[in-house]
Amino acid sequence: MKNFMFLLLLAPGFHSLAQSMTGTKCFQKKTYTVDDIITISSDDGINFHGTKNGTHVNDELGIYDYWVSEFTAQIKGNILVANISMEFEGQIENYEEEWELYLCNDAQFIIVSNDLYRLISCPDNQEK
Protein backbone atom coordinates (compact mmCIF):
# COMPACT_ATOMS: atom_id res chain seq x y z
CA MET A 1 0.00 0.00 0.00
CA LYS A 2 2.88 2.35 0.81
CA ASN A 3 4.30 1.90 -2.72
CA PHE A 4 0.88 2.52 -4.23
CA MET A 5 0.56 5.83 -2.36
CA PHE A 6 4.07 6.80 -3.52
CA LEU A 7 3.09 6.08 -7.12
CA LEU A 8 -0.09 8.14 -6.89
CA LEU A 9 1.94 11.16 -5.81
CA LEU A 10 4.33 10.76 -8.74
CA ALA A 11 1.80 9.69 -11.40
CA PRO A 12 1.77 12.95 -13.40
CA GLY A 13 5.49 12.60 -14.24
CA PHE A 14 5.53 8.93 -15.39
CA HIS A 15 6.98 8.06 -18.78
CA SER A 16 8.07 4.80 -20.40
CA LEU A 17 11.70 3.91 -19.83
CA ALA A 18 12.25 2.25 -23.20
CA GLN A 19 13.99 5.30 -24.64
CA SER A 20 16.25 5.87 -21.63
CA MET A 21 16.98 2.24 -20.67
CA THR A 22 20.08 1.61 -22.74
CA GLY A 23 23.39 0.62 -21.21
CA THR A 24 23.62 -1.00 -17.77
CA LYS A 25 21.70 0.10 -14.68
CA CYS A 26 21.27 -1.35 -11.22
CA PHE A 27 18.23 -1.27 -8.96
CA GLN A 28 18.10 -2.33 -5.31
CA LYS A 29 15.50 -3.37 -2.76
CA LYS A 30 17.07 -3.16 0.68
CA THR A 31 15.35 -3.83 3.99
CA TYR A 32 16.57 -4.90 7.41
CA THR A 33 16.62 -8.56 6.31
CA VAL A 34 16.67 -8.49 2.47
CA ASP A 35 19.20 -7.07 0.03
CA ASP A 36 18.20 -7.72 -3.61
CA ILE A 37 19.89 -6.16 -6.67
CA ILE A 38 18.75 -6.20 -10.30
CA THR A 39 21.48 -5.46 -12.86
CA ILE A 40 19.86 -4.78 -16.23
CA SER A 41 21.45 -4.11 -19.61
CA SER A 42 20.11 -3.20 -23.05
CA ASP A 43 21.59 -1.99 -26.32
CA ASP A 44 18.28 -0.97 -27.91
CA GLY A 45 15.88 -0.19 -25.02
CA ILE A 46 13.61 -3.10 -26.05
CA ASN A 47 15.59 -6.30 -25.45
CA PHE A 48 17.13 -6.73 -22.00
CA HIS A 49 19.31 -9.14 -20.09
CA GLY A 50 20.89 -9.20 -16.68
CA THR A 51 21.02 -10.67 -13.22
CA LYS A 52 18.92 -10.53 -10.07
CA ASN A 53 20.54 -11.70 -6.88
CA GLY A 54 20.30 -11.15 -3.20
CA THR A 55 20.28 -12.35 0.36
CA HIS A 56 17.76 -12.82 3.13
CA VAL A 57 19.20 -12.85 6.64
CA ASN A 58 17.24 -13.26 9.87
CA ASP A 59 19.64 -13.84 12.76
CA GLU A 60 16.81 -14.34 15.26
CA LEU A 61 15.45 -17.31 13.29
CA GLY A 62 18.86 -18.48 12.05
CA ILE A 63 17.88 -17.97 8.40
CA TYR A 64 20.36 -17.18 5.63
CA ASP A 65 19.26 -17.51 1.99
CA TYR A 66 21.14 -16.46 -1.12
CA TRP A 67 19.78 -16.47 -4.66
CA VAL A 68 21.24 -15.85 -8.09
CA SER A 69 19.24 -15.52 -11.28
CA GLU A 70 19.81 -14.55 -14.88
CA PHE A 71 17.14 -13.17 -17.16
CA THR A 72 16.29 -12.05 -20.65
CA ALA A 73 13.35 -9.75 -21.21
CA GLN A 74 11.48 -7.50 -23.57
CA ILE A 75 9.71 -4.26 -22.78
CA LYS A 76 6.06 -3.64 -23.64
CA GLY A 77 5.04 -0.11 -22.67
CA ASN A 78 6.39 0.23 -19.15
CA ILE A 79 6.18 -3.53 -18.41
CA LEU A 80 9.33 -5.60 -18.65
CA VAL A 81 8.44 -9.26 -19.22
CA ALA A 82 11.37 -11.16 -17.70
CA ASN A 83 12.14 -14.83 -18.37
CA ILE A 84 14.15 -15.80 -15.32
CA SER A 85 16.40 -18.75 -14.57
CA MET A 86 17.09 -18.83 -10.83
CA GLU A 87 19.39 -20.98 -8.76
CA PHE A 88 18.17 -21.22 -5.17
CA GLU A 89 19.67 -23.63 -2.67
CA GLY A 90 21.14 -25.76 -5.46
CA GLN A 91 17.90 -26.01 -7.47
CA ILE A 92 17.29 -24.29 -10.83
CA GLU A 93 13.85 -22.86 -11.50
CA ASN A 94 12.61 -21.14 -14.68
CA TYR A 95 9.70 -18.70 -14.51
CA GLU A 96 8.33 -15.41 -15.87
CA GLU A 97 7.73 -12.14 -14.01
CA GLU A 98 6.36 -8.78 -15.08
CA TRP A 99 8.30 -5.79 -13.77
CA GLU A 100 6.99 -2.24 -13.97
CA LEU A 101 9.64 0.24 -15.13
CA TYR A 102 9.22 3.98 -14.55
CA LEU A 103 10.91 7.28 -15.24
CA CYS A 104 9.52 9.99 -13.02
CA ASN A 105 11.09 13.42 -12.87
CA ASP A 106 14.47 11.86 -13.72
CA ALA A 107 14.09 9.18 -11.00
CA GLN A 108 14.06 5.63 -12.29
CA PHE A 109 12.67 2.67 -10.41
CA ILE A 110 11.27 -0.84 -10.87
CA ILE A 111 8.30 -2.40 -9.11
CA VAL A 112 8.39 -6.19 -8.76
CA SER A 113 5.44 -7.82 -6.96
CA ASN A 114 4.66 -4.54 -5.15
CA ASP A 115 8.30 -4.15 -4.01
CA LEU A 116 10.09 -0.95 -4.94
CA TYR A 117 13.61 -1.24 -6.40
CA ARG A 118 15.46 2.09 -6.45
CA LEU A 119 18.13 3.10 -8.97
CA ILE A 120 21.64 2.81 -7.49
CA SER A 121 25.18 3.05 -8.80
CA CYS A 122 26.17 -0.41 -9.95
CA PRO A 123 28.63 -2.13 -7.63
CA ASP A 124 31.95 -2.62 -9.42
CA ASN A 125 31.53 -6.40 -9.58
CA GLN A 126 28.08 -6.12 -11.24
CA GLU A 127 28.73 -3.65 -14.06
CA LYS A 128 28.94 -5.20 -17.51
Descriptive tags:
128 residues; mainly beta; globular; disordered N terminus
- Overall shape: globular
Q: Given the helix and strand composition, which structural class is it?
A: mainly beta
Rg is 15 Å
* Share of helical residues: under 10%
Largest sheet descriptor: 8 strands, antiparallel, barrel
Q: What series of H and E elements makes up the topology? A: HEEEEEEEEE
Strand content: over 45%
Compose a concise summary of this entry.
The protein is mainly beta.
Explain the overall architecture:
Helix content is 7%, strand content 63%. The protein has one helix at 2-10, and strands at 14-15, 23-30, 34-42, 47-58, 63-76, 79-88, 91-104, 107-112, 115-120.
Secondary structure: elements and pairs:
Layout lengths: L1 H9 L3 E2 L7 E8 L3 E9 L4 E12 L4 E14 L2 E10 L2 E14 L2 E6 L2 E6 L8
Antiparallel strand pairs: 1-7, 2-3, 2-9, 3-4, 4-5, 5-6, 6-7, 7-8, 8-9
